[in-house]
Amino acid sequence: MHLHHLTVQAFGPFARTETVDFDALAGNGLFLLRGDTGAGKTSVLDAVCFALYGTVPGIRPTHRLRSDHAPAATRTVVTLDFSCAGRRLRVTRTPKQERPSTRAKTGIATDEATVQLHRHTRSTDGQDQWDPICANSQDAAREIEAALGLNKEQFCQVVLLPQGDFAKFLRSDAKDRAGLLRRLFGTDRFQELQAWLTTRSKEARKKLDEALTEIRQLAERIDQETRTLRPHDGETPTRPASDDPGALRSWTQQLLALSHEARAAAQVDAVRSDDEHGEAKSHHEKAADLAGRQSRYRDARDRRTALDEEAAGHSRLREELDRGRSAQAVRPLLQGLDRAAAALEEARAGEHQARTLLAPEHQPEDLHRLSAHLERRHAERGRIEGLLPDEQLHTKLGIQLEELVTKEQQARADLDDAEKWLAAWPTEESRHTSAVDAMNRAADSIAHLEQTVRDATTRHEAALLRDSLAVGLTAAADERTARATEALQAKEEWLDLRERRLDGMAGELAAQLGPGLPCAV
Fold first, then answer.
1. Which helix (H) or strand (E) holds 80?
2. What's the CA gap between 192 and 266, in Å, rounded?
């Protein structure tokens, strides 16, 4: 923030219009407000604070800012020209004040507080001009606070430190100071960087723990797998007691070298074993071939011995063979006789089974009479089978007749219901017509009812907000009363201390007085 010009009129101790050119004072970057007590140093800073925020530091009321020495017709006005956030602004503010009036009954009229905020721009021809931004106290407060980044309390703590609020700033807790300094100097990026670094640190620590856990698990697996490892010379390296990755890596490298040596030795043993296996397999094949030949020789010798023993019975077997060949000619006749006998037995069994199915009076009859009875039965069966279509048609017609009777009864019932419904239809029609008209009227009133509901909802929300604001207002009023009481007590203590100090100073001056001596005052 950079101040350019300040103009005060009838403000504080300044009865007339006074102007302060800060650009001329701050030519070297710094300037000093210096003067005797009561010269108006504090009033200049009060005017700056009043122009920006409409109030002055401390608990002094704004209606007491008007100069008691100014003419009654001169209005109290403060104008401040300053630059901030890349913009140059001019704010003109007047407090609530009284002025003479010829219309009011009491002869005094009251002017409300006003504020006007302008922004400096340059026209197309390069001329300076001031464009209005707002003329409302709330809008002006938002614009100025957004430009400065500080509210009134923070501005008085940070910018107006010479006014005695520095001790209050130092006595405030760390959280309030940190919030104020963070907002003033924009240290949010450092907090974001700290949060990012903290997150990255936690993630890195988590990944490190996971990697150490995985290394520990791998070391345990390696230890289990290498317990059977037997080096040619020396002993197997012992696993380190700690989980240091460097020690584990050295241990695994030693085990890897031993495993390479064991693998090379195993490959040599495998080649040697393959050669020995080939030789043993060749010997086995030769031995197996020899054993097979010897077994076949023993079998042939035993078979020859058996044939020699059976050679004595060859003549008897040959005679039996000749007799069999002679009987071969009558073999088909014997087989046919056997088949005929079996068929005869089967026919007799079938006849007996069939006769058991006949009536008892027909069982002893001969085949001719049974054939006559069978023909008559076939004729009777043919006549009955010819009547079967008529029987089926009769049954179907009976079913259709029953269905038609049922349908006729249902139709008569439907006809009775229809007659009753037609008789009651005029009354039902009028009732439905009335219902439709009522629904149409209800549909026409939906929009009005919806608006009524929205209005009621708005009033309900406003009532809830009013209740919450009333509670907050009561609490704020209580807080304000408490703070005002504390301020009055502090002011009384300050006045008491000041009066005591003045009395002490008067006593000191009186102690220095003497007959014929000049007064130090």
1. strand 77-84
2. 60
Q: Is 75 left (phi over 0), alpha (psi -120 to 50) or beta?
A: beta
pLDDT digits (tens, 9 = 90+) for 406-422: 888 888 888 888 888 77
CA angle at 238 for the pair 235 and 239, rounded to the nearest 5°: 155
Coil/strand/helix, residue 35: coil
CA atoms within 13 A on the CB side of 483: 8
Question: At residue 29, what is the residue type?
Answer: G
C-alpha pair distances (Å), 276 with each of 40, 201, 267, 281, 368: 118, 62, 14, 8, 96
Which residue, 120, 142, 133, 131, is CA-closest to 53?
142
Over residues 297-344, the pLDDT tens digits come to: 888 888 888 877 777 667 777 777 777 777 777 677 777 777 878 887
CATH 1.10.357.10 fits 2-99+109-148, yes or no: no
Answering whether pTM is above 0.85, one says no
Token pair listed for 160: 């107006």
Give tens-digit pLDDT for 203-219.
988 988 888 888 778 77
| 120, burial (CB in 10 Å: exposed 0-12, middle 13-18, buried 19+) | middle
pLDDT of 79:
94
